[in-house]
Amino acid sequence: MSKTIIKISNVYKKFSKNKFNVLQNINYKFSIGKSYSIVGPSGSGKSTLLNIISMIDKPTKGNIFINNKKINFKENSINDITRASKIGIIYQDFNLLNDFTAFENILIARLSIENDIHKASKLTNRMLSKVKILKRKNHFPSELSGGEAQRIAICRAIVNSPQIILADEPTGSLDKKNSKEIFKLLLNTKNKNRVLIFATHNMYFANLADYKLQIIDGKLKSSNARIRKK
Ligand SMILES: Nc1ncnc2c1ncn2[C@@H]1O[C@H](COP(=O)(O)OP(=O)(O)O)[C@@H](O)[C@H]1O
Ligand SMILES: [Mg+2]
Q1: pLDDT tens profile 62-77
Q2: Which ligand number lies closest to the CA of residue 49?
Q3: pTM of the complete model
Q4: Which position among 68, 79, 110, 189 has the lowest Cβ density within 10 Å, counted as fewest Cβ atoms?
Q5: Helix, strand, or coil here: 161?
Q6: Mutation probe of ligand 1 site: the residue of 47, 54, 201 with most atoms within 8 A of C-beta
Q7: Quick one: average pLDDT of 207-218?
Q8: Pocket lining: 19 vs ligand 1, CB cutoff 6 Å
Q9: With a 6 A CB cut-off, is 43 part of the ligand 1 pocket?
Q10: Which of 156, 159, 154 is nearest to 198 (CA)?
Q11: Which pLDDT band, with edges at 50, 70 and 90, does 229 fall under?
Q12: Would the CB of 15 count as within 6 Å of ligand 1?
């Protein structure tokens, strides 16, 4: 039996401006060591669901459990610490800090959980060389291509060795060649102690996940799992 890392329980989300529930009674368990893709048309609630899992947004009703611990969405500072140490997030538009270099963007993320600059620098350099972008370390985000910026964002997402990686249309702003490379890196971040959840419009990439989830009319449906050898 695989171990549940995230449990979503009777989650509803309604934005005050909308009359309808964007998410409607979502129940799902994510297992550690697995990858999940979330598909669905634009506006179907993929980002909303990821933002609730990352505690950036809160459900209107229902609960999220991480490692069996119920999230209290009012405890912002505790949730900020949990997010920094346990969750790595990758966005479509990279969300790098523009006034900091590639190196500093990763370093700052590391320092947010442990104030050890020597260790943080070492880890950052290791990350940068892993994704073969060490030569861009002193470049600012504006000096990076989309593919390079997303590599930096991946480094930032994994520098704290999080248990959870969330990616929201990580290749939505990239060309085909870069998209393939980024997905290769992203899928490689998965390990037996980690869950990877990504939203995408691209069916080819969606099918590379162990499980494919679909949001239809606010409901989460598990569609075909990847056919796996074993
Ligand atoms: N902050 C917000 N305020 C009001 N409505 C929102 C907000 N964020 C998202 N929505 C609405 O929720 C729905 C789902 O949006 P979203 O989760 O971004 O979809 P997706 O990521 O699948 O494209 C859309 O109808 C969108 O307009
Ligand atoms: Mg979205």
Answers
A1: 999 999 999 999 999 9
A2: 1
A3: 0.95
A4: 68
A5: coil
A6: 47
A7: 96
A8: no
A9: yes
A10: 154
A11: very low
A12: yes
